[in-house]
Amino acid sequence: MLFSFIKNHKNQDAINEHLGSFQSLFSENQKKAIMVSLFLIANSDREFHEKEVQFFEYTASILNYKLHNDLNFIINEFRTLDRNELFRHLASLEESQKDWYIITVFGMLHADGKILKEEFQYVEVFFSKMNITEQRFEKVLKDYQLLME
Question: How far is the C-alpha of 33 from the C-alpha of 7, rounded, in Å?
Answer without folding.
Answer: 23
